[in-house]
Amino acid sequence: MADEESLAQVAYHRLEEDIVTLKLKPGEAITEARLTAELGMGRTPIREAIQRLSWEGLLTIRPRLGMVIAEINPGDFTRVMEARHSLEVLLCGAAARLASKDERKALQVCAGRMRDAAADSDVIAFLRLDKEFDEIVARAACNPFAAKAVGPLQTLSRRYWFRYLGDADLEASAQGHLELMLAIEAGNERDATSKAEGLMQHFRRQAASLVAEVEWL
C-alpha cells in the first residue's frame, strides 16, 4: 500500500507539472492507457493521480470518452488569487509559529534554489521549487484543511504564470520568497504574515494587470 501511495504521488507530480508547463496542452484529449505507457506505471497510481488532478480542476473526466486537459481562462486569474490570498497568509503565520527545525532548514534550501533558478531564467525549475516551497509551508503549518483548500489554487496560479508571465518577474518573486523564508525561519509570526501579505498583494496586482491586458485585446 505504501509503495502504491508513493507511486501515485510521483504520478501526480509528473502529470501536474506537464499540465502546468503546457506539455499537456489545454483542451488536449488524453487516455489512461497513454499515461500508463508514458509514465511506465500501473493503472492504480495513474488513476489516483487522475482523480486528484480532476478534483483540482486541471482535467475533466468524461465517462467512456476519456479525459480532457482543462482550458485556461485568463479572466479567472484574479478570482484564483482572491481565494488564495487569506489562506496563504494564514499558513505562513502558522508555519512561523509551528515549523520544525528541519522544515525551517528545508525552506532555507528551497528559497536559495529558487533564487538560483530565477537568476538562470529557468521557469520550469522555478515553478517546481515554488511548489516545493508551498508544500513545506503547508506541512509546517499543521493545518491540513487550509492546505487542502489552497493547494489547487497554487497549482492554477503556477499554470497562469507559465502561460502568461514566463520568466518575467522571477527575481522579484524569488526575493519575496527569500524574505518570507527568513521570517518563518526566525519564528516571527507577525513578520511572516506581513511578508506573505506583501507577496500575495504583488501577485494579485500581476493578475489584475494580466486580465486588463487580455480584455483590452
TrEMBL record:
Looking up PROSITE patterns in the UniProt record yields: HTH_GNTR (PS50949)
Iron-sulfur as a keyword?
Answer: no
Q: Which InterPro entries match?
A: GntR_C, TF_FadR/GntR_C, Tscrpt_reg_HTH_GntR, WH-like_DNA-bd_sf, WH_DNA-bd_sf
Any one GO molecular-function label of the UniProt entry: DNA binding
Q: Which Gene3D superfamilies match?
A: GntR ligand-binding domain-like, Winged helix-like DNA-binding domain superfamily/Winged helix DNA-binding domain
Where is each HTH gntR-type domain found?
5-72
User: SUPFAM superfamilies, from UniProt?
Assistant: GntR ligand-binding domain-like, Winged helix' DNA-binding domain
Task: Provide the alphabetized UniProt keywords.
Answer: DNA-binding, Transcription, Transcription regulation
Q: Which domain of life is it from?
A: Bacteria
What CDD domains does the entry give?
A: WHTH_GntR
Task: Kindly provide the name given to this protein in its UniProt entry.
Answer: DNA-binding transcriptional regulator, GntR family
Species whose genome carries this gene? Roseibium suaedae
